[in-house]
Amino acid sequence: MSVEGYFKDVLEEISIKLEDKERELIQNKHNSLREKLNEYLDIRDDFLTGSYARATLIKPKNSDDKFDVDLFIAFSKDDYAEKKLEELREITIKALRKIKDRYSELGITAINENQRRSIGLEFGSNFQIDVVPSIEIEKDVNYKIFDKISLKPVKSNPKLHNERLKEANEKSGSGTVKRLVPIIKLLKSWKREKCDYLKSFHLEMLAIKILGNTSIQSFSQGIAKFFSNIEQYIQEACLKDPANEENIIDEYLDEDDNRDKILSLTEKEKKISERALELEKEEEEEKAIKEWIKIFGGTGTYKDGSIIIKSNPPKLWQNGINKNF
Description:
alpha+beta; Poly(a)-polymerase, middle domain; Beta Polymerase, domain 2; 2 domains; 7-stranded mixed sheet; two-stranded antiparallel ribbon; 11 strands; 48% helix; globular
């Protein structure tokens, strides 16, 4: 097996493979929800964001866990700019409760009101829709998002984040193959196994910063470059939100006292990835794969020269779930 083949197999294992029927189900759910929210609330804008919209979603660690589809709703700054966190969330929650009670055909089974920046809607299947309330400061440019834990507003623009990743992925192309988004999925799997305190959005922005401006010739080359360059961006709080330079994305590492931890871990991964790259250059691919497994070992098992792949989670309509949708 080649090193490139190894990474493709790991991606095969960690990726959520949605069939057309499943995508249609999710689309119908969020479109119907958006229509109802616009009937009950004075919303200026609504759009999908997060990992599902950016195609960086990976399979939940446990088959019983749900994956998130993030729905961003923006209120008018003229009417809601002075609203506090509790008020804005409560306005949204009350509307969602009414929608759940009055429109049983939507299939909402539960509302999770305890999430940090969103309200989670469950549908009795393996995905949920997270509604993120915000205030539109300037359409398509700036939005104010409230944080339940810090009780502070964060100004940003998820639309710009979506565009930046799309552009960076295009630039990463080598021939017809674009590897940036798949590498982000691999790194998210690594994060989940070894440093779950690292935020997924932070990881995506790091990958764009380090890998986004050049062609990525192979998975091993791109990942090795990521680990070789990450130190300069995590030594201190410095990574700016492209939508708001006053928002320093990685300040939380100091607040949570995790900066030294991630520096130590990535230094080890850098040495392993450099060793793996050298072995690959020497055409010692099996030895190179064994090095890469030290980094991505939680996502596959190397045995007798092959990767043993775990099965996908059940489909949305299996076991009697959502048969009527």
